[in-house]
Amino acid sequence: MGRAKKVVLAYSGGVDTSVCIPYLKHEWGVEEVITLAADLGQGDELEPVREKALKSGASESLVVDVKEDFVKDYAFRAIQANALYENRYPLSTALARPLITKALVEAAEKYGADAIAHGCTGKGNDQVRFDVSAAALNPNLKILAPAREWGMSREETIAYGERYGIPSPVKKKSPYSIDRNLLGRSIEAGPLEDPNVEPPEEIYLMTKAIADTPDKPEYVEIGFSRGVPTTLNGEFINPVDLIQQLNQVVGNHGVGRIDMVENRLVGIKSREIYETPALLVLIQAHRDLESLTLTADISHYKRGIEETYSQLIYNGLWYSPLKGALDAFIQKTQEQVSGTVRVKLFKGNATIVGRISENSLYTPDLATYGAEDTFDHKAAEGFIYVWGLPTRIWSQQQNAK
Q1: CA dihedral in degrees (285, 290, 292, 294; nearest 10)?
Q2: Phi first, then psi: what are they for 302, rounded to 5°?
Q3: Is 282 within a domain?
Q4: What would the pLDDT profile of 283-305 be if each residue is shown by its tens digit?
Q5: Which pTM value belongs to this model?
Q6: How many Å apart are CA 388 and CA 383, to the nearest integer?
Q7: In what order do the strands lie in the sheet with 269-275?
Q8: Which reaction does it catalyse (predicted)?
Q9: How far is CA 22 from CA 13, 118, 165, in A?
């Protein structure tokens, strides 16, 4: 791959992305490095991050607030799709990568850069998500991944940075690798690499231990409009605040922890811990509302679509043609998915206890077993005869042998 003159680097302020700046300039001959830090609601103060990039040799240090886009254009679409990778992980980290890449590509185009860069290693999923998303958005941009090629240990990486004035971490490094954004936290590495080790309570920040949760249940009502969450307890609320408030309420009851061994795209199994309180409950509530408002055939068919959709996000194919085609299908299914779902939160459980919709397909007069029953029971005999006819013919043919 040819080298670049001006590069926009995805920047977090950590050791690897900081060392990428002098490495790109001194080892790969890049003339100018512009850094971009995306504010995804990770809770960090980004001004020190911006200043650190400049001290590390960046010609310009950008901070972009993408929280609202993150929720409206990425998280809400995943909720409409009930997207759970391997039926468990709601893709809180994976959803951020195509958005960060979009910001990188837009900055590259604005500043006349001929490449973008990231600090991903060759072992994880994020490298695929950045590279493939960038190729989809602007196939003419080069994609540089210094950490995938430099072959330095962490100690060597720190020493390399010190040569160019990047201070080494002053505090003892946590054994865990943690990624956080508005939708949740992912925790891996350290003792967690043994899949038989129980996660220590210290790793959790967004969810309480069951012993510390309230002794009384709390109810929350989530309103949806065309599959998009719009209200909490009857009040309209902007998308970012909705996620933030729901994270706090749900996490307070110990709901939202996931401990799983997942299959990475590169073929490695990885033990991951996730905290995604709001996202898990929103998907659960949304799926329940669909059971009230979608016909049986759409509901059943959509399940397979949801699995494919989740895999596409996890595998870095957010901007792929198939993802776009599935988006059109999912949006069509959401036209009737409006209503309110009531959730009971108590001691680590989120239980759906009620749902209501003007578009409900539930018909009390047909469902009841009471005196109001309007279902024609006599019609069942003929229906069963026709329905079972293929099975009856097959059985007769088998018995005739």
Answers
A1: 180
A2: -65, -25
A3: yes
A4: 999 999 999 999 999 999 999 99
A5: 0.91
A6: 8
A7: 177-181, 184-188, 269-275, 257-263
A8: L-citrulline + L-aspartate + ATP = 2-(N(omega)-L-arginino)succinate + AMP + diphosphate + H(+)
A9: 14, 13, 10
Q: How far apart are CA 184 and CA 274, in angstroms?
A: 7
Per-residue pLDDT band for 367 (boundaries 50, 70, 90) equals low
Q: Does residue 365 belong to any structural domain of this protein?
A: no
Q: Which residues are catalytic?
A: 16, 97, 126, 177
Domain boundary among 137, 163, 189: 163
CB under 8 Å to 330, separation ≥6 — which residues?
77, 80, 81, 227, 302, 305, 309
From residue 317, give the alpha-carbon distance in Å to each of 130, 136, 141, 344.
10, 9, 18, 35
Q: What are the tens digits of pLDDT across the range 225-278?
A: 999 999 999 999 999 999 999 999 999 999 999 999 999 988 889 999 999 999
pLDDT for position 368: 64
- Backbone CA torsion sign across 363, 369, 375, 379: positive
Annotated binding site for ATP: 10-18, 38, 119
In the block, tokens 């991050």 appear at: 49
**Among 108, 137, 163, which residue terminates a domain?**
163
Binding positions for L-aspartate: 121, 125-126
- Tokens 């047909």, located at residue: 366
Q: Half-sphere exposure (CA, 13 Å, Cβ side) for 78?
A: 29
Nearest to 103 by CA among 91, 90, 94, 116: 116
Per the prediction, the chain carries an average pLDDT of 93
Domain containing residue 375: 371-399
Task: Count up the domains in the chain and report the number.
Answer: 3
